[in-house]
Amino acid sequence: MSLSGIMPPAHPFDDDKLREECGIFGVIGLSDAANFVALGLHALQHRGQEAGGIVSHDPELGFNSARRFGYVRDNFTRQSLMETLPGPLSIGHVRYSTSGAKGPTQIRDVQPFFGEFSMGGAAIAHNGNITNADALRRELIERGSIFQSGSDSECIIHLMARSLQRNIPERMEDALRRVEGAFSVVAMTRSKLIGVRDPLGVRPLVLGQLGEGWVLSSETCALDIIGARLVREIAPGEMVVISAKSGVESHFPFRRRKSRFCIFEHVYFSRPDSLIGGRSVYETRHQIGVELAREAPVDADLVCPVPDSGTPAAIGFSQESGIPFAMGIVRNQYMGRTFIEPTEQIRNMGVRLKLNVNRALIEGKRVILVDDSVVRGTTSRKIKEMILDAGAAEVHFRIASPPTAWPCFYGVDTPQREKLLAATMSEEEMRAHLAVDSIRFISLDGLYRAVGEAGGRDKASPQYCDACFSGDYPVAPSDQIEKGFALKAAE
Fold this sequence. Notes:
Blueprint (H helix, E strand, L loop, with lengths): L18 E2 L1 E7 L4 H11 L7 E8 L3 E8 L2 H4 L3 H4 L6 E7 L17 E5 L2 E11 L2 H10 L11 H9 L5 H9 L4 E8 L3 E6 L8 E5 L2 E5 L3 H6 L2 E5 L5 E5 L3 E5 L9 E2 L1 H6 L5 E2 L2 E2 H15 L6 E4 L5 H11 L7 E3 L12 H5 L6 E3 L1 H4 L3 E6 L6 H12 L4 E6 L12 E2 L7 H4 L2 H8 L3 E4 L2 H7 L13 E2 L1 H4 L7 H5 L9
Parallel strand pairs: 15-25, 18-21, 21-22, 22-24
Antiparallel strand pairs: 1-23, 2-5, 2-11, 3-4, 3-5, 6-7, 7-8, 8-9, 9-13, 10-11, 10-12, 13-14, 16-17, 19-20
């Protein structure tokens, strides 16, 4: 597709999940760094499937970039393209477009963004969401800035351009102090790789090492694919500046605050083979299933995951309850976004193009379906219908997260609040709406216990960002409040 094109609408059968908006990856000190970045982005593809971009720097050829729609494997594995991205320093970004008012993805919205400053060029890739982006954009435009994209991330480049600091890392510090919300950033100059996390550490970022080179990544699974060693997580509010000469230099340019890492990274966003806080994501999801079985037992014959994200929790539920685990639903692993033009007849097939029921296992059985979340409820209803059509005697939903009743404004594509099933219905009303025998969600305290907080959630000072469940926003979404969004009343 040409660089001037517009991305077609998102896959019609993937509209009922919360979507992390992007993944970031950067490498310094390795020959042909962009090739390592492409591999890293491939491992982070689950964090953004609409488009990807890579910027590299070569001492002789300067900065080069490529931005493409679609999967990393379909674009950044071509030798002809990768040869245009030489050098020992490179960063990359995979993007999942949001829906609604922002419209379809355009190539100008695909990161990394690049800016030319008096002291040289710099590229930046951002995971998260700037909650005061509208106010910043108005201010910057009034002062003469010309925006090239609809992305909130571009504000950072313009703020850097207006900074009076002496070098690019200092300008980035200056810019990010004006930013509210959530951000993990990888950036590059001609000779430095830079990584930053916001003071609350809402979005993830880790540091790795490969030989003499250094790596920054959204998740540890992307370090594994290139054979890099995990060094540590970038701390909330930390900036690391990495160069071939000085190695890793650490700064803390922001006022220290209590960490509020996104708890949904444990539930769904991160890959199960990643580590968060030194703990396996898979083990956490398994423990979620254990807690769920303790909180919401039910007599049944089979525990079946909704593939693939419900699998670890379903195994935990099965082992704790003693009810046999079975793959009652099988996923078609080769269902690509361009499989077929989504005509109305095809749309009506719903999830059947992606999932198929193992009738021989299901028929006549009382089935517990374990899923990671319920957002709009549309997919849950279709899956329930498939299970009943296969002859199940009963269908019970067990959900490995609390009810999602509030939108996220920190880098997750979330429907408006009135479209969230849990925002308008009680648990019993959701059961009736989905027409199932029972539905139960893990409690917020149960989720906290599963992620390692033995005492559950500290209501006075929560350990994680759980705003999508609790309505407790650690950073006020000022742009949304200006548009009329009503925060949860104090209890």
